[in-house]
Amino acid sequence: MNNAxxxxxxxxxxxxxxxxxxxxFADTPKLDREPPSPLPGWTFARKRxxxxxxxxxxxxxxxxxxxxxNTMAAFRGAVEAGVHAIETDVHLxxxxxxxxxxxxxxxxxxxxxxxxxxxxxxxISEQRTIxxxxxxxxxxxxxxxxxxxxxxxxxxxLLDIKIDNDADDIMxxxxxxxxxxxxxxxxxxxxxxxxxxxxAKFFPLAAQxxxxxxxxxxxxxxxxSRQFLRLPNVSFxxxxxxxxxxxxxxxxxxxxxxxxxxxxxxxxxxDHMRWSIKHGADGVITDDPKLFxxxxxxxxxxxxxxxxxxxxxxxxxxxxxxxLLFGCIFYWKFGSLxxxxxxxxxxxxxxxxxxxxxxxxxxxxxxxxx
Length: 370
Prior knowledge:
By secondary structure, this protein is α/β, with parallel strands linked by helices. The protein is built from 15 helices and eleven strands. The chain has helices at 2-11, 19-26, 72-81, 107-110, 121-126, 140-147, 167-180, 203-209, 222-225, 248-257, 270-278, 289-300, 310-334, 348-352, 363-369, and strands at 46-47, 53-54, 56-60, 85-92, 98-100, 156-161, 193-197, 214-219, 235-239, 262-265, 283-286.
């Protein structure tokens, strides 16, 4: 059960209990129009020589199984391993530099208690990972420069836009960084970058700053993500284990029926990799992309058996229970897309101020008499 608890910590976004984040969302503009998100056709499962489609290999924070996560060493290792795409996370420094880090602090990866948003780039650039070979934290512009180099044009990028920072600031600065980065004229960034948004109120900012870029909803709750099916061309980046829970199978069928790309995270076990292939994932986000590519090769040669142990099933049940709990909190805190706002009970003060017309008199007439 300790492994399940560790996995739970991995899938539970820290911003769920951060009141600052809720205030940020409250200031985010409403979605007054559907974001003109193009369908990211390059992200669908790839067809093999035998005609069968297999998911693309997406390196989670780079080749995390072999290198310090979210470092240039991890990104280079992933490309060298033959991945189709790289997934990475973005944060802002105090002086508005877009850096690549999953955590909002330096503690886990760099051994320092500092928050990234409270330190400038000069300080951040001097830190080194605890894990060998002790790499520095890269900026988004560093990764873009690497991917723009000859030979890397086919590798696309999946951004996990963290909401620990001010929503408008991080979206605007990501857009500026991408806009100023060199690119291959035959492979423009809007055909190589997918923007990952967690919450409904981030979508207006994506429409504002990235009108020609594709958007994916990142989620651990299919019930929360279902609302995004009504937005055209939005893809889905879903916790793989959540599809074992209530409504998971129906959500998977709905996504495929709508013709949307589906990415599953974070899949590191062979049986879960095979399960993802069997159920039609378009991309598998994994710490070990080399292993996943080997599993795909074995799948083509008929090695397709899937066997979950009792321990694995206990973990699946435990995590789905927690997903249900946190999914309710997430939906309550962050709300839904405009037009789908949850109904709320009127407050006591509202009831006291409610206009009650006299019998036989309309509300309008009653107000005019007052």
